[in-house]
Design goal:
By secondary structure, this protein is an alpha+beta fold. Helices cover about 45% and strands about 25% of the residues. It has helices at about 15-25, 25-30, 35-50, 85-115, 145-155, 185-195, 205-215, 225, and strands at about 1-5, 10-15, 60-70, 70-80, 140-145, 165-170, 170-180, 200, 215-220.
């Protein structure tokens, strides 16, 4: 196990094929965050503390995995601060947009309730139940590499029935996903998991049209299913 200190918040670790065999672990274990992978990661962090003075992250770390053909794996640990990182600020921006949408929804509900309290004119039918606001069923995520998209696809259930498209534009990989035939609970869970691997963007019509017009479509349908690492 070879450990190298990059900076105060980043450390790299090289695991040879022999060491991977000794640990009985492979690339997929790190992607799936198996118990064996967690034990190895903990051992790497402890060894990095002793050898190069590495301090474990205060909040969470971002783990990048690179396969080196016929050699082994290169793992890069970097601290991910939710208040300082770029992804964190983008997530906060997305939450602000969601808050605005919820506020508008509340205002519409208030208007409908107010109008329903007024006495209707003679001959006017009164609806029995107010219309329930429609929940969002589409989302867009930006990944910095195709490897991150593959890692995300691998943690999802194989039978998740969402619709997904993959685009590349300006060096980033964009995943457009809609609920499709999946339950809303499973779709929501998939969106939450995506935030661990990517930056979040509101999937409004203008952004989607811009992506389809200026980006390159890599996979037009079932992108997540086709990118799963078996």
């Amino acid at each position: 196990m070879k450990i190298e200190r990059v900076d105060d918040k980043t450390v790299k670790c090289f695991l040879s094929n022999e060491e991977l065999e000794e640990y009985n672990i492979d690339y997929k274990d790190f992607i799936m965050r198996s118990e064996k992978a967690k034990e190895v990661v903990q051992e790497i962090i402890e060894q990095a503390e002793e050898e190069v003075g590495y301090k474990p992250p205060r909040f969470a770390f971002d783990l990048q995995i690179m396969m080196l053909p016929d050699q082994g794996l290169l793992l890069t640990f970097s601290e991910k601060d939710p208040l300082d990182s770029k992804d964190g600020s983008q997530i906060l921006e997305c939450l602000k947009e969601m808050k605005q949408v919820l506020q508008k929804t509340k205002e519409k509900i208030g208007e409908k309730q107010s109008s329903s309290q007024q006495l209707p004119d003679e001959g006017t039918s009164v609806p029995e139940q107010s219309e329930v606001p429609k929940r969002p069923e589409e989302a867009m995520f930006a990944f910095r590499s195709i490897g991150r998209v593959m890692e995300y696809a691998s943690v999802l259930p194989a039978n998740l029935r969402v619709h997904s498209e993959l685009y590349v534009m300006d060096g980033l990989y964009y995943l457009y996903m809609t609920k499709n035939a999946a339950s809303y609970e499973r779709y929501s869970r998939a969106c939450i998991q995506a935030m661990e691997f990517s930056a979040t963007f509101a999937a409004d019509e203008d952004r989607l049209l811009h992506l389809r017009e200026h980006g390159e479509c890599l996979i037009a349908d079932k992108a997540l299913k086709k990118l799963r690492i078996c």
